[in-house]
Specification:
Length: 186
């Protein structure tokens, strides 16, 4: 059975999680843009960092999957927003749903991981995006600040690292069970 951990990562947080997940499962690991044919794998774990709700590389990667039949698919997002907050998880989930076909979304099991940020390392484009976002968010009335917005305000300009490899354990358990979700007729 061919199994792989695929990742999309700009600054290395999702890559770190992906490499640890590969170590814990024994799966191979590969950047999303180096995958030749995703269809050859029976078990696929995708680990992608969140940028404005988008999961880096995920849409492109799964658009090449011809069928989900008999596949085990786990998708893990890596973001600053705290996955212990259900509102964050709902937002992430609806974003992921928009970026995938119905078939892939139904078959995939979603996990949310917490990453980190180092403002001193951000690209000019990302620094600008965060400055604009911060400028808007800091003036919002308190009741309009979502958990995601609050997390961004609290960590703005800083270096924070919430990476926790133990949070990979439910993904490892799911992948090791290796039970493909039944394929519904489309
Ligand atoms: C421009 C920008 C947009 C971001 N958007 C989100 C977001 O929508 N949700 C979230 O939880 N985190 C967001 N983040 C935080 C990143 O997801 C977080 O820093 C992650 O750990 C980066 O992963 P990487 O190091 O693998 O690139 C954003 C960060 C930047 C710089």
């Amino acid at each position: 059975m061919a199994s792989i951990v695929i990742y999309g990562s700009q600054y290395g947080t999702a890559k770190k999680y992906a490499e640890e997940l590969a170590r814990k499962t024994g799966f191979a690991v590969c950047r999303y843009d180096a995958i030749v044919d995703i269809n050859e794998f029976d078990a696929i774990a995708y680990v992608g960092s969140l940028y404005a709700g988008g999961v880096m590389g995920m849409k492109k990667t799964f658009s090449r999957l011809a069928s989900c039949k008999d596949k085990t698919i786990a998708i893990a997002t890596v973001g600053l927003a705290d996955p212990a907050d259900q509102e964050n998880v709902r937002n992430i989930q609806s974003g992921v749903e928009r970026q995938l076909s119905k078939d892939v979304f139904r078959h995939a099991r979603l996990f949310c991981l917490r990453g980190g940020i180092d403002y001193s390392k951000l690209s000019f484009k990302h620094k600008t995006m965060m400055r604009l976002l911060h400028g808007k968010a800091k003036n919002l009335p308190e009741e309009q600040k979502t958990a995601e917005v609050r997390a961004m305000l609290e960590t703005y300009g800083e270096r924070v690292d919430f990476v926790d490899f133990d949070s990979l354990d439910p993904i490892v358990a799911y992948l090791q069970a290796m039970e493909p979700i039944a394929c519904e007729p489309s």
